[in-house]
Amino acid sequence: MEPKKNPNLEVKRNSLLYFFVGMTLVLLMAYLALEWKSYDPISDWDTGQMDPRTLLEEEPPITFHKLPDPPKPQVQTPPVIDVVEDEEDVIEDVIKSSDSDQNTEIAPIESIEVEEEEIPDEVPFILIEDAPIFPGCENEKTEKGKRACFQEQMLKHIRKNFRYPEMAQEMGLEGRVSVIFTVQKDGSVGDIRLRGPHESLEKEAARIISKLPKFQPGKQRGTPVKVPYSIPITFKLNP
Questions:
Q1: For the chain, which residues make up each domain, given as ranges?
Q2: pLDDT tens column, 24-42
Q3: Which residues contact 219 (CB under 8 A, 6 or more apart)?
Q4: How far apart are alpha carbons 146 and 140 in whole angstroms?
Q5: Burial of residue 181, with CB atoms counted within 10 A of its CB: 0-12 exposed, 13-18 middle, 19 or more buried
Q6: Architecture of the domain defined by 143-235
Q7: pLDDT at residue 82 in the model
Q8: Beta-bridge partner residues of 233
Q9: Backbone angles phi, psi at 124, to 5 degrees
């Protein structure tokens, strides 16, 4: 059986040969393009290629310049001398020593003025000279004993008037309320500041402090002053 197509007319018959021939021509053209060199045209009047021995030597022109006139000498006038009459002889006093000796008079103590130190309006409890006195602590003889009695009576007052808030018990609230109050100059309690975990506990602590009796005011150098005092009140439920 004869084939339908003529093998001599096959398109892909010599495709591989044509491919290699084309690649060879492309590489040859690329090589020639890379190796191609061009040069700028050379001018006959290019000064860079001229022989310096053939150049003409030019003589500089002769010019004349007029110099300025010299400055005139300055005539210095002689200074005027004033004749001053002789001053009178000044008698110098002998500088006396300011150091005291056995002949120095001593001023009486009554004539010496002592500047009074300003007393502050408020003094902390730990720095006050005479701390506030809790009612019942007047018989203590020492300042240390009065301070210890003050703190002991404060704890007794808190235990006596302590009452756990019902709402706090139902909610299971516990914690510590920090209380700061000020013993005024007349011995009353004021400027109460509280900080605790819940408002109900703070209200109970404020109620306890409001029931404090009137104190003897604290004194600084004999003058009544305000004395701030801080104490914690702990709220804890029994298991």
A1: 143-235
A2: 999 999 998 888 877 666 6
A3: 128, 129, 130, 225
A4: 6
A5: buried
A6: 2-Layer Sandwich (3.30)
A7: 74
A8: 177
A9: -60, 160
3-state secondary structure at position 36: coil
| Closest alpha carbon to 237 in 169, 140, 180, 138 | 169
Compute and round to an integer the Cα radius of gyration of the chain. Answer: 59
Q: Give 13's DSSP letter.
A: T
Give all strands (DSSP E) within 43-188, no chain letters: 175-183
CA atoms of 174 and 233, how far apart (whole Å): 11
Q: Which structure tokens are listed for 85?
A: 């009459």
Q: Which pLDDT score is estimated for 85?
A: 72
Cα gap 158→46, rounded to integer Å: 117
DSSP 3-state of 195: strand
Answer yes or no: are the C-beta atoms of 208 and 233 closer than 8 Å.
Answer: yes
For the chain, the distance separating the N- and C-terminal CA atoms, rounded to the nearest angstrom, is 115
Using 50 as the pLDDT threshold, list the residues of the chain that sit under it.
Answer: 1
Position of tokens 């003025």? Answer: 113
The pairing of beta strand 219-220 with beta strand 189-195: unpaired
List Cβ neighbours of 192 (8 Å cut-off, separation of 6 or more): 179, 180, 181, 206, 209, 210
Token pair listed for 179 = 């209380």
